[in-house]
Amino acid sequence: MNFRELNTLEVILKITERCNLNCDYCYFFNAGDDSYKGHSALISNDTVALLVQRLKEFSEEYELQRIAIHLHGGEPLLMPKARLDRICREIRSNLDPVVDLSMTIQTNGMLVDLDWIETFNRHRVQVGVSLDGAKAHNDAHRLDHNGRSSYQATVRGLALCQEHLNQPPAVLAVIGEDFDAGEIYDHFRRDLDVRQLDFLLPDLNHDNFSGNAEAYGDFLIEVFDRMAKDEESVGVRFIDHFLARIYGQGNFLFGDGNDDPDHLLITVSSDGGVGPDDTLRSTKYWNGYDYRDLKSSSIGEIIQDTLFHEFEHYKKTPASACSDCCWRDVCGSGQPVHRYGSSKGFDNPTVYCEGLDKFYTHVVRHLALHGEPLEKVGADLI
Ligand code: SF4
Ligand code: SF4
């Protein structure tokens, strides 16, 4: 990989490595990698200052156009407010003059209040709230450490965000195999008036997936059909990205969800360790991976690690079994974490292949039937 052609660096920044929830599907806490136990609960001011310095050096050296910083946890709002305010100020004041900087935060919403919202508005931080649907759906996986529901607190936080944030929040939901997509879509739209949504496939791979892949495709089809009939304009990120891909924009659908093909994603731990996309921690591929320390290495040096190069190679190289699939150049075999299996590494179609194939076909047929010129959507795809 030639990282010299990068336009965008995405940084998943673990400002906290603890959480007030204990979601059973959490790739960070409950997928077998306990490295968080040896990391600081909260990132220190010194680590943030060092990261900012490293990012400045890197963006100048690589002539980056854009840096996207995603404030993650654990639950990032476990950070004291004054400290998060300082972190955002440090990042903005140092990087705004150098690159096009965007900042997001992904929260379970339970601790959101007006002070937090003021901080997000002040620093132009786009907020994503994690919520899987109505109470029964959300309670299926998103409980606290004592088994209590998080639904009411999250919905209250989401409502505050909707009322007071300058930029409307997005809701991020993980799909359950037996979840009712229609009920969930209607709950988000009618009950909660959400207009920006995303649905994620669970972080499973060939070593631990035993479900019905088609059910996930049916879920996405139902969401697409409801979205198509919705009288208001609703953004569903996964679907919007698919539509962009079939019109030839961007890279593979699962290339970190970023529209810029020349981008790289790094994860920075609360101790200032750097590694690749850490959703991989839910696979055996990640076993024993040692984060590289920002104190002793620049970002330019760290991304020369074999794991970064291998991972970027796999992301850009569809599995051999996908060579005859008409969706290959759109799907790219799916998200790397879903492609992994201990026997063949990443050389597998995603575990959700059957469902995605069904979903892709449904959407393109819908477009064709509704008058989209076939040459535009790719006649060979259907
Ligand atoms: S809220 Fe997020 S970080 Fe916390 S346990 Fe749930 S999925 Fe993991
Ligand atoms: S739909 Fe399935 S076979 Fe086709 S590219 Fe995607 S993972 Fe491969």
Descriptive notes:
With 382 residues, this protein is α/β, with parallel strands linked by helices. It folds into two domains: 3-316, TIM Barrel, CATH 3.20.20; 320-381, no CATH class. The protein has 14 helices and ten strands. It has a ten-stranded mixed β-sheet. β5, α6 and β6 form a beta-alpha-beta unit. α1 (45-61) packs parallel to α2 (81-95), α6 runs parallel beside α7 and α7 runs parallel beside α13. The longest helix is centred in the N-terminal third of the chain and has 17 residues, at 45-61. The protein is globular, with a radius of gyration of 20 Å. The mean pLDDT is 93. Bound molecules: iron/sulfur cluster (SF4) (2 copies).
List key phrases describing it.
382 residues, 2 domains, 10-stranded mixed sheet, 10 strands, binds iron/sulfur cluster
In summary, what is this structure?
This protein has 382 residues and is α/β, with parallel strands linked by helices.
CA radius of gyration is: 20 Å
Class computed from helices, strands and strand pairing = alpha/beta
Shape: globular
Number of strands: 10
Quaternary organisation: single chain
Bound molecules: iron/sulfur cluster
**Tally of contiguous helical segments:** 14
